[in-house]
Structure prediction request, 204 residues.
Amino acid sequence: MLLGVVALAGAGALVAGPVASAQGDSQTVYADVDGDGTANVVTVRLLDESTQSITFDLPQGPVETTAPAQLQAPQPPRVTDVNRDGAAEVAVTTVTGANTQHFQLFKYEPAIGVVAVDGGGAPFTFYEGGGISARSGYQCEDPGKGPMLRIVSAQYDFETETYDGTTSWLVQSGNSISEWTRAPFSDLPADDPQLNLDPTTCAP
Prediction:
């Protein structure tokens, strides 16, 4: 089963290469999306109230796709390499709310162009934030079974003043990502390391 997975860490936006730049209705970052060792220009641009484009500027010419957008302004993509294959993915913000950001993960597929990473029949989505009542986070690691994305999703128990939730490990293979295993936890204090993962470990 694949999750619409939760991911925290607004302070840990993953950006490779020069600092993201904004111009009007667009945001640009630099990422080696084709794995050739050279950073490519990646641009997200709001097209209307519900749609944005994602463009990878490659040596052979630009390729692009679209994604949902419920945004007042475009957000800089986060650059990752979850499976450590040398070709970066970009996490694109699709929704911003009071306490939560929604993301989709995109990558370059030579035979197709820009594709949304699949999460079991639908685009792989994950979330950041949750406000007072929730905690979530992610990091990239290798638990001895190859590169994985580790996700934590927790709810606050106001009676015990601790968090209960699950830790999940996901594996990306090609254009899809799926859950490898998960484990529940309970009664964790807010400062427990299991709740405070490091998203910068996903940077290329």
Summary: DSSP finds no helices and 15 strands in the chain.
